[in-house]
Write the structure tokens for this entry.
Amino acid sequence: MENKKTLHRNMIVLGCISLAVIIIPALLIQTHIIKGYPAQVLTTAALNAILAISVNMVCGITGQLSLGQAGFEALGAYSVVLLTSNLHIPLPISIILGGLIAAFFGFLIGFPTLKLEGDYLAIVTLAFCEIIRVVMVNLKDITGGPNGMQFSTIFTSSLQYGPMISYISVVVTLVLVIILLQNFLRSTYGRAILAVREDEIAANSTGVGVFRYKMIGFVIASFIAGMAGALYAPLIGFIQPKDFDFNASINDLIFVVLGGMGSITGGIIAAFVLTILQEALRFLRDYRLLIYPVILILVMLFRPQGLLGTKELSFIKLYEKIFTFGKSKKGAK
């Protein structure tokens, strides 16, 4: 009986989330109530939220400082273009393969480097990001070199349903990543990763393989970043190496610092707010680039743990509070 109630509750919550963040916005985009430019801003914000989750997985949840997530994003972006254009693999499969390719390179990089800590790991991952960028610049016959590559699919075409499909694709991916990651963190593997983050020595003394769980967290973060890159290419329709430089990694890290290290929902909120704010203040021209530093300084001064710290917003808890409140009011009558 209890399992049926839990399943019923979860289905209601999932239905409400789908209606609020997927179905209604998609219909507003399709009916041109939300027009082309605002629709692209919303889609880009959702894409940045996926990147924020990737950075949060390795920095906030696994407890390792990485500055190379843009490198894995680049691998996913170029992989999806080459797989779709040259090998004619369907786009959905290419997107998943792009994530897997990034995860494979995450394993290769993580195996020798995750034994390092702190600044050393950050330097190595930064070097990896720059190596990927330089390789993409010099492989002119394959990647187009510094001039980049064009990529045209239904995401970027002028078809009637292009903006709606792009929004649905990115947001559905975001929701799936959140659901799967939250369930993973509640599993034995997830709790072991959190134990390693809190105290490596104590975790090791209780039999938790510190290196193994660091590797699992790093590879998962690489896969998510690769998926974000694989979605970025068909969304924008043009990629070039400078899109994935050191500044891109820092921007992704800012989302996590402002939202809260270890808080997935905090990083998502920060990604949406900062992406929309940056576009809304575009009339300030180059002065809008001062927004990030000013906001970051204010947060570090008045709330150094970030917007939510390590806390998470739970729609299930919100549903239970509303449901319990409704019941208590009926009982009072």
